[in-house]
């Protein structure tokens, strides 16, 4: 009897517009396979913007290159106006409604707060995603499982909504839950609801926000769904320039620092824990590993080779005028720190630059990745 094909998980982290980098990575990988070839990944786990990418690719698990081509087509045609309201009337009207809603009596239900109205994103996701394809891919055996992680504002838990084969069980761990669900647009909007920027999304009776907030163990959904290998495409911002540490940090610097911490620090700690566990298991016989229900899980951690900030500074002028005005009113300027801008700069020139960066970074590691994906 032949050796069972390993289950490879694709883990896509969050990062707003930065997630275009992941498209470039996947584009390079897709070129290594024939036009009609199933995906090398059978498990997909995504958080925030990474969850949106994961759903799109997983829907075409039976034809990997087609799925990547569609994902690239979507990203290459994005504009800020397809993510949030950008017109002066749309932005001021939305903020006015937010303000008036909070002047009403407490028994009136208030809408969740967000500086930007992401209704266009809801319309886009409903338009480009065919969620029924996920269940068809699962039934056909092309997809083992997919998860979308969001943060519950009610319990403070990280909740991974997953859809997959019947053998995958729900889990309850400290600050982490896994719940079976039929994934839809609400789950994606919840996972991508960056605090203060986009409003929280309601699933059932609970409001959820960006999945990176309480995600203490980003690798857990992949491990719980039985992954043997994990390819992680991280969106951590490389700090290449030394700053003047004698200057007091402004709002932009503080905001960018907090957002980078939310989206990346927990992954670093979880990877250290996985490496330590693998080292311990490597000294045990395979039979002893199976007896304890544990196994060595290999991983590759991909991250951008260059900082996002120079690109964000370069293309800052492409943001809609009203968006720039709102950022300036909040004290955010690209001269201070472009980290925040790099999250919301959904403009074609910036996005194409990130896709190219991801593509080139992956080409440089082609031999390592090819061997890993066997």
UniProtKB/TrEMBL annotation:
Extract the signal peptide range: none
Species:
Photobacterium sanctipauli
Map motif GXSXG onto the chain. Answer: 46-50
Q: Domain of life here?
A: Bacteria
Q: Which residues form the PNPLA domain?
A: 10-225
UniProt GO MF annotations: hydrolase activity
Q: Name one GO biological process term.
A: lipid catabolic process
Q: What is this protein called?
A: Patatin
Q: Where are the transmembrane segments?
A: none
Query: Which Gene3D superfamilies does the annotation name?
Result: Cytosolic phospholipase A2 catalytic domain (3.40.1090.10)
Q: Which PANTHER family match?
A: BLR7027 PROTEIN (PTHR14226:SF57), NEUROPATHY TARGET ESTERASE/SWISS CHEESE D.MELANOGASTER (PTHR14226)
Name the InterPro entries on file. Acyl_Trfase/lysoPLipase, NTE, PNPLA_dom
Q: Keyword Transmembrane helix on this protein?
A: no
Quote the catalytic residue positions: 48 (nucleophile), 210 (proton acceptor)
* Pfam assignment, any one: Patatin
Name the UniProt key words of this record, in alphabetical order.
Hydrolase, Lipid degradation, Lipid metabolism
């Amino acid at each position: 009897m032949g050796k069972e094909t390993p289950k490879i998980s694709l883990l896509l982290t969050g990062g707003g517009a930065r997630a275009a980098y992941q498209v470039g990575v996947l584009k390079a990988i897709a070129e290594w396979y024939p036009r009609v070839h199933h995906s090398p990944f059978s498990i997909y786990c995504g958080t925030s913007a990474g969850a949106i990418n994961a759903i799109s690719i997983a829907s075409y698990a039976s034809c990997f290159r087609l799925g990547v081509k569609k994902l690239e087509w979507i990203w290459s045609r994005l504009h800020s106006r397809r993510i949030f309201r950008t017109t002066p009337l749309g932005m001021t009207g939305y903020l006015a409604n937010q303000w008036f809603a909070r002047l009403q009596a407490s028994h009136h239900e208030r809408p969740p707060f967000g500086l930007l109205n992401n209704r266009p994103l809801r319309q886009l996701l409903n338009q480009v995603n065919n969620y029924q394809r996920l269940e068809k891919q699962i039934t056909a055996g092309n997809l083992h499982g997919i998860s979308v992680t969001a943060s519950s504002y009610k319990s403070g838990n990280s909740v991974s909504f997953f859809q997959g084969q019947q053998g995958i069980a729900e889990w309850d761990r400290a600050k982490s839950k896994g719940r079976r669900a039929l994934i839809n647009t609400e789950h994606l909007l919840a996972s991508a609801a960056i605090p203060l920027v986009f409003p929280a999304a309601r699933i059932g009776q609970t409001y959820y926000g960006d999945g990176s907030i309480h995600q203490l163990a980003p690798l857990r959904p992949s491990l719980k769904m039985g992954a043997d290998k994990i390819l992680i495409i991280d969106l951590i911002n490389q700090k290449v320039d030394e700053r003047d540490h004698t200057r007091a940090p402004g709002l932009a610097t503080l905001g960018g620092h907090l957002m980078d911490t939310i989206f990346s620090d927990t992954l670093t700690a979880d990877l250290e824990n996985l490496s330590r566990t693998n080292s311990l298991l490597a000294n045990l016989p395979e039979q002893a590993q199976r007896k304890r229900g544990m196994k060595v899980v290999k991983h590759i951690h991909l991250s951008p080779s260059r900082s996002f900030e120079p690109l964000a500074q370069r293309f800052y002028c492409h943001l809609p005028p009203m968006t720039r005005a709102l950022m300036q009113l909040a004290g955010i300027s690209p001269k201070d720190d472009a980290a925040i801008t790099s999250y919301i700069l959904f403009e074609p020139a910036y996005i194409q630059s990130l896709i190219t960066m991801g593509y080139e970074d992956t080409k440089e590691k082609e031999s390592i990745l090819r061997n890993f994906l066997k």
